[in-house]
Design a protein that fits this description.
Layout (H helix, E strand, L loop, with lengths): L9 H7 L12 H12 L2 H15 L3 H25 L6 H8 L2 H35 L14 E4 L4 E4 L6 H16 L1 H26 L19 E3 L2 E4 L1 E2 L5 E2 L1 H8 L8 H4 L7 H30 L10 H8 L3 H35 L5 H4 L10 H17 L2 H29 L14 H15 L3 H25 L1 H6 L1
Helix pairs in contact: 2-8, 2-11, 2-13, 3-9, 3-11, 4-9, 4-11, 4-16, 4-17, 5-6, 5-16, 6-7, 6-13, 6-15, 6-16, 6-18, 7-13, 7-15, 8-11, 8-13, 12-13, 13-15, 16-17, 16-18
Length: 495
């Protein structure tokens, strides 16, 4: 067990950057910010805003977005410090390896695998809903058996119910298309993403400025119908109201749900190895993308809840349907088209990030290097793990419902943020003289605030999310102790 807590020296991380297996450094601050915006703006605005407003917070979902963004700022500053110190693939996994030890690194890496895979599947679901909304404008529809997952989650009873369908075909198809683009290369992926980001930003601004004309202030009353709290501990509500199935409701519970909408910013740090000047560009990309998206989220949430009473918001396609309800069919067409574009870019960045986690873990020997560490000779991408990711995401999005996926990914993301904030505190103590091109301000206040706010949101999630996380981590422990611990590069160096 003592060897399981061995730490990876920062000098070894930097030495790996000289390897011939290094990824191409072609991303500047604009491209990195675009990747961050591409990952953040999408499902949060076009899908989850409906669930959070309808089921959790009402018009006060604007405060939920602000609270979630506030929690992210602390984590973003900690991510930026680490990314400038060790500009390699792996994100929170790499940072944990250097500060907390191998076992904690494995835990966070295994958690990130769950986070990106389930997030990608959730995003694919959102794309499918808007695609079907889009073709419905022309009177077309898919066969009922191919339009959604075969099961759904009933919040009132806490059980799964059959939907009578086979699988979600559009979600599977968009996943396969994105997989092909990602295997092709990072330059093509980044360019593809930048084009989609421009389109969806234009649509988001259209929603804000056009929708503002149709806002009825009375729709904002009552502003917080479910209260301002919604705090629970392992499923037992200790502050605020409970909804169907005993789940907490209120502004805090809404923030815990829509926290999913912000996870894209940490994907910027997974591409530090592909940044031209990571010490400068990665912090810019992290912080700029987070600030831009938080402002836009709050504005869109205010407009949509002002256009339509919160209990009349369509959960599957809330933004486009809001324009349909006020009689703007042409705007519904543009919003549906923009939503599909925006959600596509989110899916691209999510699926771009997960193979980089696999790559970092394979380099350390914790996963088989000949598969997860394989870099394509021509495209210089981790092509095998990208294909595996595409297959796994397609499988999840085809058969599991959106509500289950969205809440499951939130707890994994929050857990990763807690680890990164903790790692900054530890690294400041254990390596005070390490070169830090970017330093998180007000340490230890900022990391501690990040830990507390993320834990607060974790406790606001339903209890079953904790059990799913525990089961996933238990599977990970088995893989680590039977394979990773024995094949670790640090284990070989010590021998």
């Amino acid at each position: 067990m003592k060897n399981s807590f061995r730490k990876k020296p920062l000098s070894l991380l930097l030495e790996e950057m000289k390897s011939e297996h290094r990824l191409n450094r072609i991303l500047g601050p604009v491209a990195l910010t675009s990747l961050g915006v591409g990952a953040i703006i999408g499902t949060g605005i076009f899908v989850l805003i409906g669930v959070a407003a309808h089921d959790k917070a009402g018009p006060a979902v604007t405060l939920s977005f602000a609270l979630a963004g506030f929690a992210c700022i602390f984590a973003a500053l900690c991510y930026a410090e680490f990314a400038s110190m060790a500009p390699v693939a792996g994100s929170a996994y790499t940072y944990a390896y250097a500060t907390l030890g191998e076992l904690f690194a494995w835990i966070i890496g295994w958690d990130l695998i769950l986070e990106y895979a389930v997030a990608s599947a959730s995003v694919a679901h959102g794309w499918s809903h808007y695609f079907q909304d889009f073709i419905g404008i022309f009177g077309w529809s898919l066969p009922a058996a191919l339009c959604r997952a075969p099961i759904d989650f009933d919040q009132a009873t806490g059980t799964f119910i059959p939907t009578g369908t086979m699988f979600d075909l559009p979600a599977v198809l968009i996943t396969l298309v994105i997989t092909i683009v990602l295997v092709k290369g990072i330059r093509e992926s980044a360019g593809f993403n930048t084009g989609m980001v421009i389109v969806k930003l234009a649509i988001v601004l259209l929603v804000i400025f056009l929708g503002a004309k149709y806002v009825k202030p009375e729709n904002w009353q009552p502003f917080a119908p479910f209260g301002y709290s919604g705090l629970s501990v392992f499923g037992h509500t200790i502050l605020g109201q409970t909804g169907p199935g005993g789940a907490p409701i209120g502004v805090l519970a809404g923030a815990a749900m829509i926290f999913f909408a912000y996870i894209g910013f940490d994907s910027v740090s997974t591409h530090a190895e592909e940044a031209r000047n990571p010490q400068r560009d990665v912090p810019i990309g992290l912080i700029a993308s987070l600030i831009i998206c938080t402002v836009l989220y709050i504005a869109v949430a205010a407009v949509i809840t002002g256009m339509v009473p919160y209990d009349k918001i369509n959960i599957d396609a809330p933004v486009s349907d809001a324009f349909r309800q006020v009689g703007l069919g042409w705007a519904q067409f543009l919003v549906s088209l923009g939503a599909m574009t925006g959600i596509t870019s989110v899916l691209l960045v999510m699926m771009l990030s997960q193979p980089r986690i696999f790559l970092a873990m394979a380099r350390d020997g914790l996963l088989p290097k000949n598969f997860f560490g394989s870099i394509h000779e021509k495209y210089r991408t981790p092509w095998k793990s990208t294909i595996l990711t595409g297959f796994f995401v397609a499988l999840l999005s085809a058969f599991l419902p959106l509500r289950l996926l969205a809440e499951l990914v939130n707890i994994g993301t929050l857990f990763a943020f807690v680890v990164v904030c903790s790692a900054v505190l530890i690294m400041r103590k254990t390596n005070p003289d390490a070169d830090r091109p970017f330093r998180a301000p007000l340490v230890p206040l900022v990391p501690i605030a990040g830990i507390l706010t993320c834990l607060l949101l974790m406790f606001s999630l339903p209890a079953e999310n904790w059990w799913r996380l525990i089961i996933w981590l238990a599977i990970g422990f088995c893989i680590y102790f039977f394979y990773g611990r024995h094949h670790s590069i640090l284990n070989r160096l010590q021998d």
